[in-house]
């Protein structure tokens, strides 16, 4: 399975769009540092997507007393427990997760989650090689569908958009499979 975490900011991610001739499309913006972290796993066989979110509002360190790495470790550990429930040891005796070397992919909370789910194991990818992790291609498509050229008023609105897009991808697993395998349709010019 391909595992990773993506950050979705409240400010819009911009991309090319169509517009009416003579009128420039605009997208609002604001100075907002709130983020929604999404931990996700894509089953390489079935193309099922499983995701969990972790809100990171501005000032979260002051509110929780935990640093970013510790909050992320705990969020990732919760995600691992979720994966362990979705793929129980009785049905899946070995679940291999491809992960990068983010600091929140190791530490005490992660060790505890792995002890609770001994059938989960990590295969760490080399540093600075996101192109080797198939879920990175999925994050790109998810961002395009859920956040490009859209300004969200609240983290709840952003979360709603992401969940709707994740539900969509659950219904078109053949697309997810082609995305993670790198077989997307490319435009050809003659």
From TrEMBL:
One of its GO terms (molecular function) is nucleic acid binding. Gene3D superfamilies: Ribonuclease H-like superfamily/Ribonuclease H. It comes from the Bacteria. Pfam families: DDE_3 (PF13358). Residues 69-159 form the Tc1-like transposase DDE domain. SUPFAM superfamilies: Ribonuclease H-like (SSF53098). This is Tc1-like transposase DDE domain-containing protein.
């Amino acid at each position: 399975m391909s595992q990773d975490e993506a950050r979705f900011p409240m400010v819009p991610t911009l991309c090319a769009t169509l517009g009416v001739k003579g009128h420039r499309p605009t997208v609002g913006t604001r100075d907002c540092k709130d983020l929604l972290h999404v931990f996700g796993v894509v089953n390489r066989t079935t193309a099922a997507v499983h995701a969990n979110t972790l809100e990171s509002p501005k000032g979260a360190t002051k509110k929780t007393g935990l640093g970013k790495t510790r909050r992320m470790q705990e969020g990732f550990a919760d995600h691992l427990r979720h994966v362990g429930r979705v793929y129980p040891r009785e049905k899946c005796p070995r679940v291999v997760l491809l992960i990068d070397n983010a600091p929140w992919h190791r530490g005490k909370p992660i060790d505890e989650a792995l002890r609770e789910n001994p059938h989960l194991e990590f295969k760490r990818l080399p540093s600075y090689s996101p192109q080797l992790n198939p879920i990175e291609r999925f994050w790109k498509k998810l961002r395009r569908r859920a956040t490009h050229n859209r300004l969200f008023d609240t983290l709840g609105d952003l979360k709603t958009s992401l969940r709707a897009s994740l539900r969509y991808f659950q219904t078109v697993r053949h697309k997810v499979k082609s995305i993670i395998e790198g077989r997307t349709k490319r435009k050809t010019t003659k």
